[in-house]
From TrEMBL:
Protein name: HTTM domain-containing protein
UniProt keyword annotation of Ribonucleoprotein present: no
Annotated keywords: Membrane, Transmembrane, Transmembrane helix
Signal peptide: none
Segments forming a coiled coil: none
């Protein structure tokens, strides 16, 4: 019985995580998040109404899972809607969307893989073991990707970018304190990310690892990354066994309730005091108050989760769930993990860096700086960025005002001395400009692609050639060797207060 109670809450958590992700992006970007389809991740270009339909479909599917988590027909429905969302995701796909996709696939396999065609104790064990494996692999890559030179350079590290933003947002200016935060952001993150999975792997330290994971992701949420932390809470919940979860629910009402209220209030006060007032330095929330409500709800969840994990430490130890799987389930899970691992392995094979769990790691192909894996090991070594030597005939920024895709194209393409462009973005941006103004602009471009100099006089005639329409790499890369390679998230036109996406 407790297995199914645990399972219902797990399904609701993954559905809530997806809703929190979307809600926070709407709070940050407003309607634009719901209707724009710019440089879609897997080339699925949708109209504004089409994007709205996908968002609405995913919303209804997630609400259905929260209401009826045992209705297994909702699992493939939600998976299909999330797949469409991912395929049409603009510019940069959030890594936790891939994690959510695998979790939903795991739920589908677990529910429909059995002879009964329903959720059973066996399928619950399958989901628990599968989620535990995904979390451990994700932590491995989050740590391993950071073992590159650029991440440990303070002025370039993505970690210090978040620390600097946090300190700016909260008015923290004491040099000694800022320096401590920066070093903790870089080295503390690496140490914690390697410690958590190690602690989770062993019975005697698993719950200690769970508590450390909750605290770590709560800190990340205080840096403004609530949506990622919400998904990781869902994954970490798999390490709180159904027996331990049931034991936490059965705790004494007096003292236990007091500690629960205390944990929730402390989490809530911490969020109200320390969470950033902006979504990013150049991207404030369009709707601030609803975002506060979401972040406050996350704080209450943190208090409850931490309370349950602490109580579970008093219960009899429960091992990881691998021993409860049959041979068939073991085979499926190993194949499942292999695909998930191959996705994270992308940078070391050279075929992609995006959605490979390389978030905030500074890992990139050019220049390659990993401390353990040499560039010569990469199977795919061809350059993935275009250097524009000369470009003429671009429309003015005022000519495309209101067309967000065209605005981005004009702004970035007009700065060839500042950026390299991914092959996908380069072609997409020029084709967007064909229809942005009438008549279509006559654009001349001279560029170097894969060590070959080329010129195109009539880009709308197909002179640029074919490129796989997948966002496998950041769409622009700063040419300045001292710039953080993730700075494409701060493209702000002159005189504007807000970045382009």
């Amino acid at each position: 019985m407790e297995n199914l109670e645990w399972y219902r809450l797990f399904v609701r958590l993954i559905a809530c995580s997806i809703l929190v992700h979307d809600a926070l992006y709407v709070c940050r970007d407003g309607k634009a998040y719901l209707v724009n389809c710019i440089l879609p991740t897997f080339g699925l270009r949708l109209s504004a109404p089409g994007k709205l339909v996908v968002h609405a479909g995913l919303l209804l599917a997630c609400l259905g899972l929260i209401w009826r988590p045992m209705e297994i027909y909702l699992y493939p429905t939600c998976l299909v809607m999330l797949t469409l969302k991912i395929a049409s995701y603009s510019l940069r796909l959030a890594n936790h969307m891939i994690f959510a996709w695998f979790i939903l696939l795991l739920l589908c396999i677990g529910a429909f893989g059995g002879a009964q065609g329903m959720v059973t104790t066996g399928s619950v064990v399958f989901v628990i073991a599968g989620t535990q494996g995904l979390v451990l692999i994700l932590y491995f890559f989050a740590f391993f990707h950071k073992l590159n030179r650029e991440y440990f350079v303070m002025k370039k590290s993505c970690a210090t970018a978040f620390v600097d933003f946090f300190c700016m947002d909260r008015g923290i200016s004491r040099q000694g304190l800022v320096r401590f935060y920066r070093y903790f952001g870089v080295y503390g993150t690496v140490c914690i990310e390697v410690m958590i999975p190690i602690l989770l792997c062993f019975e005697k330290t698993r719950l200690a690892g769970l508590v450390m994971g909750i605290c770590f992701h709560f800190i990340l949420a205080l840096m403004g990354i609530v949506n990622f932390s919400m998904f990781m809470y869902t994954g970490l919940f798999a390490f709180l066994s159904p027996v331990e979860f049931d034991s936490a629910l059965q705790s004494p009402s007096g003292t236990g309730a007091a500690w629960l209220v205390c944990a929730c209030l402390m989490s809530l006060l911490t969020v109200w005091r320390w969470t950033p007032r902006k979504a990013a330095a150049n991207c404030d929330y369009v709707y601030r108050k609803p975002a506060w409500i979401i972040q406050s709800g996350f704080a209450l969840l943190t208090g409850c989760f931490l309370y349950a994990a602490m109580l579970a430490m008093k219960a009899p130890l429960s091992s990881l769930f691998w021993h409860g799987l049959d041979h068939h389930q073991h085979t499926i899970l190993w194949l499942f993990f292999a695909v998930f691992f191959l996705n994270g392995l992308g940078p070391y094979l050279g075929y992609k860096t995006e959605f490979s769990f390389a978030m905030f790691s500074n890992l990139r192909l050019e220049p390659w700086g990993h401390l353990l894996i040499p560039a010569s090991w990469r199977v795919f070594r061809r350059s993935q960025y275009i250097e524009v030597k000369k470009i003429e005939g671009l429309p003015g920024f005022d000519d495309v005002k209101g067309n967000r895709a065209a605005e981005l194209a004009v702004f970035v393409l007009s700065k060839p001395r500042e950026y390299y462009y991914s092959r996908y973005f380069f072609r997409y941006a020029l084709r967007v400009l064909e229809t942005a103004v009438s008549p279509a602009p006559a654009i001349f471009v001279a560029y170097v692609e894969r060590n070959t100099y080329r010129e195109a006089m009539d880009v709308h005639a197909g002179e640029l050639g074919f490129c796989i329409p997948v966002n496998r790499f950041p769409f622009v890369m700063p040419r300045d060797p001292d710039a953080r390679h993730s700075e494409q998230g701060s493209l702000v036109p002159e005189g504007a207060a807000r970045q382009l996406f």
